[in-house]
Write a structure and sequence with these properties.
Largest sheet: 2 strands, antiparallel
Order of helices and strands: HHHEEEE
Number of helices: 3
Structural class: alpha+beta
Low-confidence stretches: none
Bound molecules: zinc ion
Distance between the termini: 61 Å
Strand order of the largest sheet: 1-2
Shape: elongated
Oligomer: single chain
Mean pLDDT: 94
Number of domains: 2
Length: 130
């Protein structure tokens, strides 16, 4: 493995992701299960080849950049759900609005009637019912 990139978070994710089409393909009879089975099998195989290509690549800088981009997307994905979960937990006491100007999310106490909300990020003001 000298001079080769090796495994990273992205390659582990790719192997795991390849299992999905592979298992579905096997459930419907594999490559013998008709064209869908074949397509899914080819997709799984392509993902595994790509993952191996990355592992044995000598272009370490580029592979590391791909991995950090993947980690950034992954954390953005989990941040999105964490935010939704937090808003759901506070739904009795607060209402959440998106600023029509800059799309920032704002938290406003409930049951204050129709109020004007000023965005703390861009200063845009809008009226909403709480
Ligand atoms: Zn705004």
């Amino acid at each position: 493995m000298a001079g080769r990139y090796g495994n990273d978070s992205l390659s582990r994710f790719l192997i795991f992701a390849a299992l999905v089409p592979l298992v579905v393909s096997l459930l419907i009879g594999g490559a013998a299960g008709g064209s869908l089975g074949t397509v899914l099998w080819v997709i799984a195989f392509a993902i595994i080849i790509y993952s191996n290509y990355r592992t044995f690549s000598r272009d370490i800088q580029r592979r590391a950049a791909e991995n950090s981009r993947f980690l950034e997307l992954k954390s953005r994905f989990f941040r999105f759900f964490k935010k939704r979960r937090e808003q759901f937990r506070q739904r009795r006491d607060y209402k959440f609005f998106r600023c029509p100007g800059c799309k920032a999310t704002m938290r406003v106490p409930r049951n204050r009637g129709k109020i004007q909300i000023r965005c703390s990020r861009c200063g845009n003001a809008f009226i909403r019912k709480t």
